[in-house]
Amino acid sequence: MDKKLIEQAYEIAKARYAAIGIDTEEALAKLQNIQISMHCWQADDVTGFENQGGELTGGIQATGNYPGKARNIEELRSDILKALSLIGGSHRVNLHEIYGEFGGEVVDRDKVEVKHFAGWIEWAKSNGLKLDFNSTSFSHPLSGDLSLSNPDPEIRRFWIEHTKRCREIANAMGEAQGDPCILNVWVHDGSKDITVNRLEYRRLLKESLDEVFATKYEHMKDCVESKVFGIGLESYTVGSNDFYIGYATSRGKIVTLDTGHFHPTESIADKLSSLLLFTPEVMLHVSRPVRWDSDHVTIMNDETMDLCKEIVRCDALDRVHIGLDYFDASINRIGAYVIGTRATQKCLLQALLEPIETLRRHEAKGEGFERLALLEEGKSLPWGAVWDMFCLRNGVPVGEEYIAEIEKYEAEVTSKRV
Ligand code: RNT
Ligand code: ZN
């Protein structure tokens, strides 16, 4: 793309925004500092390197069979780096326990150690990336329908031990990178049909989590993620939203809001301001639910926009961790990363370009028309020219130019994986 044109368009946009009191340079500087935690599991449809060929369980599903998925750590790392080379800014990579470097050995989940992630820590360091982490309750012979809330003390013990070890690993990652590692705990626990023991499983989950979190760590932060239901677990979810709101607020833990984990008409954006008053921080799994928790690729839609605007309106960029969580196996997977991450950045940029002070002034004076008019006009301000400048300055493709780059990588690399 013509660099001159992008610069000219940016200068015009800059003046246009200045007229409403917005400094585009300030918005660009803020966007530059926002780290997005890119989930490793889009690259291989949540397979991991533990039980190659094993079935994905736990009520989640990656549909599609687009060729070229990453088959091993080297391929996964290479795909993530390719995606990141097309995204401006510096970011984080979010790992699941099943993505450890087990070197052909069978390492059961209750035996996992920091050493299995030493390679990842090294890799992240040499690529200027930070790591986040997740315990993995699904796709294991002991997953069943209940893990941390299982009435069988032995099964429960197994998952408690697993989750404890994951916290230790997260802490090691955080220490090595000089920045806290966020450990997300999502367990699939639930029931396909009516259960007459709702209270008991929740009591067990609470007890297990208390045991898991008993150790204090300095270099990691814990979050807990709820959901409405999983496939095959439709009637009851032990870790419901109410459960985790209660748990996190009483324990000072972080709540993870996955945008696919609520009823379709609920606003996830609206939850932020409440949580921020009662929990230290918030973690996001930005996804795109289509009719259900389908984990389609995140795009620049109203939901993502509302969420990003709310983070900025709450002045909470330093308290809200933005992670992505989707896994579409039906399209080019590197492309999926790039679309979703760039879409999130586009929404954040538009949020940063909002004339919030003027809007709030109107609101304070009861000027509803003026507030609504300015919100509407804001939608067609030339934010795209500011976005192009962000990409240009970061040395990443401007606009649709990344399509050709991904096609090239597909022709040279991923299409050869058979
Ligand atoms: C599942 C949760 C969870 C997973 C990942 C793989 O519904 O969203 O976050 O997607 O941990
Ligand atoms: Zn999630």
Q: What's the number of structural domains?
A: 1
Query: Do you know the CATH topology?
Result: TIM Barrel
Largest sheet: 8 strands, parallel, barrel
CATH structural architecture: Alpha-Beta Barrel
* Shape label: globular
The first-to-last residue Cα distance is 35 Å
Strand arrangement within the widest β-sheet reads 1-2-3-4-6-8-9-12
Alpha-beta content class: alpha/beta
| Count of helical stretches | 14
Number of strand elements = 12
Determine and state the CATH class: Alpha Beta
Low-confidence residue ranges: none
The helix-strand sequence is HHEHEHEHEEHEEHEHEEEHEHHHHH
Cofactors and ligands: L-rhamnitol, zinc ion
Q: How would you explain this protein's 3D organization?
A:
This protein has 418 residues and is α/β, with parallel strands linked by helices. It has one domain: Alpha-Beta Barrel (TIM Barrel). The chain contains 14 helices and twelve strands. It has helices at residues 3-18, 24-32, 73-84, 118-126, 153-177, 198-212, 241-251, 269-278, 302-313, 333-352, 356-364, 368-378, 383-394, 401-412, and strands spanning 36-39, 92-96, 130-134, 181-185, 190-191, 220-225, 236-237, 254-258, 282-286, 288-290, 292-296, 320-324. An eight-stranded parallel barrel has the order 1-2-3-4-6-8-9-12, surrounded by five helices. It has a two-stranded antiparallel sheet with strand order 5-7. It is globular, with a radius of gyration of 22 Å. The protein binds L-rhamnitol and zinc ion.
